[in-house]
Design goal:
The protein has 168 residues and is mainly alpha-helical. It is built from seven helices and no strands.
Length: 168
C-alpha cells in the first residue's frame, strides 16, 4: 500500500479523536467540525514529516489551526457564541442531566487560557501521557504538568465559585 493510502487509512481511524480535541478547543459543534475538516485537509495536502507520529502531528496541526482561527476572530471582532442558539435533542432526564453537566464543564473549560485548555483536553479527553502531550505541543514535560495542575485547580475553583457540582 502506498504511503498516501496508508496515511488516509490512519487518518480515518483518528477522526473521532481529532473531533473530540477540536471540540475541546472550540466549545462548539460547528466550529469543531470545521476545525477537524481543516486539520484533515492540511494533513492530506501538506503531509506529515517522516519522523513524526501521525497522531501527535494531527493534534499539533489542529491546535495550530485553532490558534490561527482564534486570533483572526479576535481581529475581526467576531460575535460571541450563543449556546441558546445551538440545537440539541433532549429526550429524558439522563440526557438533560448529561447536557447540563457537559455545559457546566464546557463553561468552566472556556474560562481557561488556551494553553491550559488544550493540555487538559489532550490528557483527560484523549488520554495522552504527559510525555506524549509534551511531544505533541513541543513543550517540556514540566510545563505540561504545571499547566495541567493549574487547569485542574482553576476548574475546581470555577465550580466552587459558581456553587455548582458535577451531576452524577
Amino acid at each position: 500500500m502506498n504511503k498516501q493510502l496508508q496515511m488516509t487509512k490512519q487518518l480515518r481511524e483518528l477522526i473521532p479523536a481529532i473531533r473530540r480535541f477540536a471540540f475541546s478547543l472550540t466549545g462548539s459543534d460547528y466550529d469543531a467540525d470545521d476545525l477537524m475538516q481543516n486539520t484533515l485537509e492540511r494533513l492530506l495536502d501538506k503531509g506529515v514529516p517522516d519522523d513524526a507520529n501521525l497522531t501527535k502531528w494531527a493534534f499539533r496541526v489542529c491546535r495550530n489551526l485553532w490558534i490561527d482561527e482564534y486570533r483572526s476572530r479576535k481581529v475581526r471582532q467576531a460575535a460571541t457564541e450563543k449556546p441558546e442558539l445551538q440545537e440539541s435533542a433532549i429526550d429524558g432526564d439522563k440526557t438533560i442531566a448529561n447536557q447540563i453537566t457537559l455545559n457546566q464543564v464546557q463553561r468552566a473549560m472556556n474560562q481557561l487560557p488556551e494553553e491550559q485548555r488544550s493540555i487538559l483536553s489532550l490528557v483527560v479527553v484523549e488520554g495522552l501521557s504527559y510525555k506524549e502531550v509534551s511531544e505533541t505541543l513541543n513543550i517540556p514535560v514540566g510545563t505540561v504538568m504545571s499547566r495541567l495542575s493549574r487547569a485542574r485547580s482553576a476548574m475546581v475553583d470555577w465550580f466552587n465559585d459558581h456553587d455548582m457540582r458535577i451531576l452524577a
